[in-house]
Amino acid sequence: MRYTLGCSLSYNILSDTTFIFNLEVAKLRSAEILSESLILKPDLKREVYITPDLQNRYIGVNVPTGPFSLDYNAEVDLTVHRADPATINETPIGQLPLDILPFLLPSRFVSSDRLTPFAQAEFAALPKGHQRVNAICNWIHDHIAYQPGASDGETTAHESLLKRAGVCRDFAHIGTAFCRALGIPARFVSCYAHGLVPSDFHAVFEAYLDGRWWLFDATRQADLDGLIRIGVGRDAAEIAFSTPYGNMQPVNQQIRIVRSDGLGSPPQRTVDAISTEIPRPHAGAA
Amino acid sequence: MRYTLGCSLSYNILSDTTFIFNLEVAKLRSAEILSESLILKPDLKREVYITPDLQNRYIGVNVPTGPFSLDYNAEVDLTVHRADPATINETPIGQLPLDILPFLLPSRFVSSDRLTPFAQAEFAALPKGHQRVNAICNWIHDHIAYQPGASDGETTAHESLLKRAGVCRDFAHIGTAFCRALGIPARFVSCYAHGLVPSDFHAVFEAYLDGRWWLFDATRQADLDGLIRIGVGRDAAEIAFSTPYGNMQPVNQQIRIVRSDGLGSPPQRTVDAISTEIPRPHAGAA
Amino acid sequence: MRYTLGCSLSYNILSDTTFIFNLEVAKLRSAEILSESLILKPDLKREVYITPDLQNRYIGVNVPTGPFSLDYNAEVDLTVHRADPATINETPIGQLPLDILPFLLPSRFVSSDRLTPFAQAEFAALPKGHQRVNAICNWIHDHIAYQPGASDGETTAHESLLKRAGVCRDFAHIGTAFCRALGIPARFVSCYAHGLVPSDFHAVFEAYLDGRWWLFDATRQADLDGLIRIGVGRDAAEIAFSTPYGNMQPVNQQIRIVRSDGLGSPPQRTVDAISTEIPRPHAGAA
Amino acid sequence: MRYTLGCSLSYNILSDTTFIFNLEVAKLRSAEILSESLILKPDLKREVYITPDLQNRYIGVNVPTGPFSLDYNAEVDLTVHRADPATINETPIGQLPLDILPFLLPSRFVSSDRLTPFAQAEFAALPKGHQRVNAICNWIHDHIAYQPGASDGETTAHESLLKRAGVCRDFAHIGTAFCRALGIPARFVSCYAHGLVPSDFHAVFEAYLDGRWWLFDATRQADLDGLIRIGVGRDAAEIAFSTPYGNMQPVNQQIRIVRSDGLGSPPQRTVDAISTEIPRPHAGAA
User: Where does the record place the Transglutaminase-like domain (chains A, B, C, D) (predicted)?
Assistant: First the structure.
């Protein structure tokens, strides 16, 4: 499916500020970037860095005092991998590849160690596999209220769980935390999301099952097969769309994504298991 | 300087347990491994993984019920890089290489975002450079009591700061947090430590200054120039010497390190700035 | 029912220490104290204070360096008030007497404000009355593991809930918190508890229903009709059996309670609603 | 000094709501109430309760759906007790009256137990007495930023301390916490405050020194000798000006206090120690 997407951010810079942005579409085999442009005003020198393992695209810019805006546009052709959820199993910890370890351990906002008693009590007895992670998403959707203002940039998964409220960032953190607490590697995903109203950067998560990273969205707010990845990481700390160091005021922020292939959206959300990552062979101790 | 070091761990495995160990000496140019052996009893198949960026050596072992022991020995020739602390400066954020970002952001136990008001109030006015990080270590040493039992595996830097007590793990987390709060990249280091009494795995931290990672130990308990790195990471969550998944009881644990070149230790601890990492050129937006 | 009970505490006092004890049986109409003795060694001057509202008996003693022991014995005749739980209703907040307010508000360890989303989600739809509070106790008993060492003197109700583990103090805090979150006044009770194994000071809670304070024990470890109250308060902070100010080491602690009327205990725990407080008329806005 | 003061609160009640208000001037010997009126619209039946020990005046009102307003006015003649701070000493714990215990122990927002290491490190060596508590206020004023929005109704003293920001409620909680951590009984005070701009309910604290409760205001925002007490308690949980149970929207809130004796205010804030409570004899173990 073809999408036209992008974002426009504007700021008033009060003192020299370094920005680190992560908002460009990740270069995945599943997401072919047909065209792309990034325009800064003023047109400043930028440093570009792509993490070798996760393919996150970071841009560093030093911005002087005054107005500053960033305009990103891309046309992307997304081909997701679909499968029957019932066929997707979990991998015993002893057979997981060791490089997946960062996504099994707790991180700044994914306090999976603190949530382990709860997750074990609630989900340990469920049949394993994609269905179990989907049950986790259903539990989150049924028990956590989507409530802008219920959290901030320091809220952890266990705090959101206690408060029973949060936004997409928190839904993704709780889902990731529950998975890790059950021995399922999981990671936080930032993305452009077709079907999300109002339009915004979206946060979902991926769980590693049967050698592949599968997408999950506990908010149930966007099309699971219309998610264009920006970044993946342990949690929101790693892939904020903007990390500023300096004194500045955000002025405006607009995120957009539309279908551009003339095809309509299906009337119902997909029930397929969806992945946008290539599978990987996993070596493990037998 | 030459060291003979190692560790012996024994367990009683109650049900099949997967261990992920990180306890072998990291292969750095500064730490030449003259000989090394790892003996497991029973002699089980092990999976080996070395993180490509940080060179952490992980071993994965699936251990069946019954007794289990691990014995690691190595002889290491350590050549540290020394410099006059007064000559080592901080790098403005806008000139830091973007791949250092993970060590500027908060992580599971290094809650630098929550400690920023405190760190700014306490240290922002100090002259920048190695001396500032050393002042941080002095502050920690003077204000935090070394108190086994004051923390556990879930304790974060801000909790240790409030409690004014902790162990080496917590001292290193607080030091790392303060640095990150001031815009100095910092990372957690696990190591064998000459001079540490009683002998144990030790935790210190490194701060990135003037293109190099420099060692700091806020506990002041070991020889700064006698630290042999095992792992580096965002914090203790990433490089626990042992991460078990299963039901087991630790039986015994012995860590050892002695000088083996026949030379005595200097009567006083070094005041040099010490690094065991090669320098790196850093690319940044001018 | 007649009970012989008491406690023996011994300490090694390292520097002058002020103790405030709350361990004598509360003088309730339901608990007739037939005989009582308190022996201190050395035999120090003690200050006695009984809170006018809640009848908590505090003893203040200033103890010099050296060995110190306290021995308390009492013979008590307990006559509980029994009722059919199905007949006991909740009182709408608008009709509660205002002096009950302290037991509706959050306190140091009873973080009822933080637990309100959870309590509302879990219990709001249950039929109101004694049965609802009993359902709360059942939930706690089924979901929280009784685990010495899982908490300490600073653990709050929401922390115990997250950890899914605690001791009697934490079970009582969670029960009290859930009640307050539902608008049911509730308070923490310390007591001697017949049937508790191993013998110890016990913590339960009371909920205010239909003009009376009714006892509840979420641990299900003692006879509900064999609880002899020591103190009541907002939470454990108010009625610790011992609050020391000074440098001392506890040496030994023995708590005891046996039936002394020659009658055996019934084979099964009671299912009656139990109260040891006289009823009170409540004035409320109609 | 004579003051005309009061408050006007208006609400839109969405469903039947029980309010418990604590906003009338406390009847102290030092604050003679010359005239007073409380007007509710609609004119509803109210329940009145005055706590026997602390003299807090609570009003309970059940308000039906629709608009609701409360208008309170009073004229008060305040005669404070002044003394030279240098003459006011602390009382050793062993000589404090036992009924002061609630103000030595931690409470919901005054997490003095968690702040004890910090308070001991910072203030233990200071000369004891009124001057030490004043030094505590100076420390708070210098280190905590007055920042509306930095806290909410669940923020505890140690959280405000870590954040280094808060409002009057938090300044009072930290001051109370530090005192309790040093063995100085302290309590939270809500009041009308002359000199406070913008006008609002104010929060300060009192410390028990030399048999008397002395006022302290770490915000330094109001006249210490122009504080008219509404309530005292362990912390803000006990004496919120309004505790609502129901679904309602606050519409408007106006608090006012002016000098009404025609005398001007002195050009500078007083440096006297100020108390509005009568002294009390204290019995203690010699």
Answer: 160-220
Q: What is the dihedral of CA B232, B235, B237, B239, to 10 degrees?
A: 10
What is the tens place of the pLDDT at every residue in B179-225? 999 999 999 999 999 989 899 999 999 999 999 999 999 999 998 99
Sign of CA dihedral C113, C115, C121, C122: negative
Beta strand ranges found along chain C (DSSP E): 2-13, 17-21, 31-41, 46-50, 57-63, 66-78, 81-83, 145-146, 165-166, 186-193, 202-209, 212-216, 227-233, 242-245, 248-259, 273-275
Cα separation, C187 vs C207, whole angstroms: 7
Rounded to two decimals, what is the model's pTM?
0.86
Nearest Cα residue to D106 out of D181, D8, D207? D181
Of A114, A115, A164, the CB nearest to C121: A164
| Cα distances (angstroms) measured from residue A33 to each of A54, A193, C54 | 17, 16, 72
Closest to A151 (Cα-Cα) out of A175, A170, A171, A176: A170
Among the partner residues B121, B158, B164, nearest to D121 by beta-carbon distance: B164
DSSP letter (8 states) at residue A210: T
Six token digits for residue C56: 């908590």
**Angle made by CA atoms C218, C222, C227, in degrees to the nearest 5:** 100
R_g of chain A, CA atoms, integer Å? 19
Asked whether the beta carbons of D232 and D189 are under 8 A apart, the reply is yes
CATH code given to domain A81-191+203-225+263-275: 3.10.620.30
Whether residue B124 lies within 8 A of chain D, CB to CB, comes out as no
Q: Where is pLDDT greater, at A168 or C285? A: A168
Complex prediction ipTM: 0.85
D124 by DSSP, 3-state: which? coil
- In angstroms, rounded to a whole number, what is the distance separating the alpha carbons of residues A266 and B73? 62
Two structure tokens written together for B43: 């002699």
Contact D98 C46 (CB under 8 A): no
User: Which residue does chain B place closest to D164, by CA atoms?
Assistant: B117
For D60-70, what is each residue's pLDDT tens digit?
999 999 999 99
* Cα–Cα dist C230/C193, whole Å: 10
Length of chain C: 286
Query: Which residues, 6 or more positions from B264, have their beta carbon under 8 angstroms from its beta carbon?
Result: none
∠ CA A192-A195-A196, nearest 5°, is: 65
